[in-house]
Write a structure and sequence with these properties.
alpha/beta; five-stranded parallel beta sheet; 9 strands; globular
């Protein structure tokens, strides 16, 4: 039985989809391939190659909060575990104490106004770090970068496009920066990989477009699978864990929908208990127990919220032990009547494989929001939390 609040019919009605999405979030998601190509070109025009002049850094710190924080997680996944220097994310004010003159700081803000990112850039300048700033031109971030004589990589501004729909516009300059620093193997993650990622996103845009019937649109199918369930998103590699992280954020922002997040092998121990909890086998309600009244009125009862295990796989990079854990997780879920969805990353490069999963969930989150009767663009709670009231006297 489908959750009562889900309107499946809207997904096959282009007119209703358009009316329910007045700010055009679906169109913004469809711009992902253009963002990849455009941002890669803008980075080259801005002189990204100059970063190599001072040689390889000790470490790369990617600073960003909110939607921009996912860029740091994704960049570390694209660089991979064999990178000769650590690539780390930081989503707070200022900088960690270890950051110094030997390091590169990449400050990212989709709005160009993030107080945390601006404070990190200013601190990086004071410490003598090499600094790269990514954001809109003619923004506080751009002006701060100019004062610090930092390399500024502009992001094309599109009216009405939220930061969370600018993921690729923000990620590609960061990818270009680590490539210029010699931290990406050109053969595996060079310009061809950028074009392949763009092509992959174009293919998803075609298959997930509003006019595609639900049964042939992978995003619409996935949206209906998730509806009424509590998704348990598990990645099997660093790259698919990054995609799961982005997916959870998009489900929350675009559909107001929660998800549990984890990565194997750690999640097998840390989160396995939820399979036996209230949203797992204990919430199945499949058979009549000793206290079940067979003759009670069931007309007004709704189906309980159940877990759905969503495994984001990357068989090309999975450790054999993790592969065995993933297979065991599928078996354990089946034994508990927990539904399972397995999604495999597609593509030859890490950037393309990331695109295959991130692109799918970007569309899925929007379609789920629309099926639940939500406009996917405005997030009132985010505005409330980003501008908290000034504490009264005596408050902490």
């Amino acid at each position: 039985m489908r959750e009562a609040g889900v309107d499946e019919s809207i997904l096959d009605d282009v007119v209703r989809l358009s009316a329910a999405d007045p700010s055009g979030m679906l169109l913004h998601v469809a711009s992902s391939a253009r963002q990849v190509r455009e941002s890669a070109a803008l980075a080259q025009e801005a002189g990204i190659g100059s970063l190599a002049a001072d040689g390889r850094p000790r470490a790369v710190l990617v600073v960003g909060v909110g939607s921009s924080a996912a860029v740091g997680v994704a960049l570390a996944a694209v660089v991979g575990s064999r990178c000769p220097v650590p690539v780390l994310g930081h989503n707070g004010f200022g900088l960690p104490g270890w950051v110094g003159v030997a390091d590169v700081v990449i400050a990212i803000s989709g709005s160009g106004r993030s107080e945390a990112t601006l404070s990190a850039l200013e601190e990086a300048d004071r410490r003598g770090c090499r600094v790269v700033a990514v954001g809109p031109p003619d923004s506080p971030l751009a002006h701060c970068a100019e004062r610090a004589r930092a390399l500024f990589l502009p992001v094309a501004v599109v009216d009405g496009r939220p930061t969370r729909a600018s993921f690729w516009a923000l990620l590609l300059p960061a990818v270009a920066a680590v490539r210029a620093l010699g931290l990406l193997p050109p053969a595996a993650e060079g310009p061809d990989a950028v074009e392949a990622a763009a092509a992959r996103l174009e293919d998803l845009a075609m298959r997930c477009r509003p006019a595609s019937e639900t049964f042939i649109s992978p995003a619409k199918v996935l949206a209906l699978e998730l509806a009424g369930s509590l998704p348990l998103l598990w990645g099997t590699t660093a790259l698919t864990a990054a995609a799961a992280d982005r997916a959870a954020g998009q489900l929350a922002a675009n559909a107001g929908y929660p998800a549990l997040l984890g990565a194997l092998p750690d999640a097998a121990g840390a989160q396995a208990g939820v399979l036996d909890g209230m949203f797992g086998v204990r919430g199945a309600g499949g058979g009549a127990g000793a206290d079940d009244d067979f003759f009670r009125d069931r007309v007004d009862e709704t189906e309980p919220v159940r877990l759905r295990l969503v495994l984001l796989r990357d068989q090309a990079a999975e450790h054999p032990a993790v592969t065995r854990q993933a297979e065991a997780a599928v078996t354990a879920a089946a034994e508990r009547a927990v539904a399972v969805t397995e999604l495999s990353a597609q593509g030859s490069s890490r950037l393309e494989r990331l695109a295959s999963l991130v692109g799918l969930f970007d569309y899925t989150s929007v379609y789920l929001g629309l099926a639940l009767g939500l406009d996917p663009t405005p997030v009132a709670a985010a505005r409330d939390l980003s501008s908290p009231p000034t504490p009264a006297v005596g408050e902490t």
